[in-house]
Specification:
The chain has about 300 residues and is α/β, with parallel strands linked by helices. Helix content is about 35%, strand content about 20%. It has helices at about 5-15, 60-65, 105-115, 120-135, 150-165, 180-195, 210-215, 250-270; strands spanning about 20-25, 35-45, 50-55, 75-80, 85, 90-95, 170-175, 200-205, 220-225, 230-235. β9 and β10 form a beta hairpin. It starts with a helix and ends in a 34-residue tail after the last helix. The structure holds adenosine-5'-diphosphate and magnesium ion.
Length: about 300
Amino acid sequence: MPSVPLKADHLVAEAPLVSVANVQKTYFTRQSPIHAVASASVDVARGEFVSLLGPSGCGKSTLLMMIAGLEKPTAGVITLAGAAVAAPRRDIGVIFQDATLLPWKSTLENVLFPIRILKLPLDKYRDRAHELLKMVGLAGFENKKPGELSGGMRQRVAICRALIHDPEILLMDEPFSALDAITRDQMNVALSEILEAYRKTVIFVTHSIREAAFLSDRVVVMGGRPSTIILDKKMPFARPRRFEIEETQEFAQVCRELRLTIEAAHGQRQGHGQGHGQGHGLGGARADGRQQPVKASAAGASIIE
Ligand SMILES: Nc1ncnc2c1ncn2[C@@H]1O[C@H](COP(=O)(O)OP(=O)(O)O)[C@@H](O)[C@H]1O
Ligand SMILES: [Mg+2]
C-alpha cells in the first residue's frame, strides 16, 4: 500500500473545517474603543457541534458574526476549509434569536425563500422543504402565515429555511433564548434529531449552560474582560442524546464545571475594574458568589441553567 497518499488523505480528513486563529475584535465607537474579543483561537472539525458559551456581552455574537463573514476581525484570521473568510457565504446557514420570517409569506414560501434568492430551481427543493417541515413537526402547517404560528414553530421554520439549500455549516445565535423553558427543551431535542438526520457542522451561541452541554460535542467558554476563551471542553455524552441525560449525575457534574469556570472568570473580572463600561452581562456580582454556585451564582443575571 502506498503510505504517502494515505497519510495525506488522513491529514486532509483531519484539517478543521472552521479555524479561528488569534482573532481579536475592537469596535471603535465615538466614546472609547470596545474590546469585544481580546483573543480567540478555536478549531471546529467537519460534522462537529461546538457551542460558544458565556454571559451576555462577552463577545459570542461578535465571534459568530466574524465566522459568518458579517464582521471583520481587527486582528487574526478565520478560515473555512482553508480559505480566509472575507464575505458572507452560501455554504453557511445563519439562525438568529428572532426567526425573522416574512410575515406575508406562508411557512412553505418562507422555507423556500433562500432558494428564490439564490435563483435555484424551486421545483427541485419543494420536496426537501416538505421533508424538513415534517422532520420538525410542522407537516400540515405549510400554508399558515408566521402570525398563525407560535414562537417555537416560527423558530422551527427558521431552522428549515437555514437548511433548505443544504449548507455545510450552521451558525446559530441564541436561537431558542426567546422561547419558554418547556418549548426550549423541546427545541433542543428537535435540533438534535435534525442533526442526526442531516449531519452539519454547527457553531451555536448560547448563555445557557444546560443547553450547551446537552447539544454540543464541545463547549467553548468565553469570558473575562476583555473576553477570551477560558475553557474548551469535550462533552462526554453518547449520541443520540435524549432528554433523560439531563437527569444524570454526569450531566450535573459537567454543568457544574462549566458554571464554576464562568464564575471564576467573573471573579477575575472584578479585580480589573469596569472593563469597557458596557452595562449588560454580569452586573451586580458579588465577590463571594462562588459560595452558592447554583441559583445565587454571580453569573445568575445572565446565565440561565
Ligand atoms: N456593532 C457594535 N458596535 C459597538 N459595540 C458593539 C457592537 N456589537 C457588539 N458590541 C459590544 O461588544 C461586546 C460584545 O458584544 P456581543 O458580541 O454582542 O456579546 P454577546 O453576544 O456575548 O452578548 C459588548 O460589550 C457589546 O456592547
Ligand atoms: Mg449575542
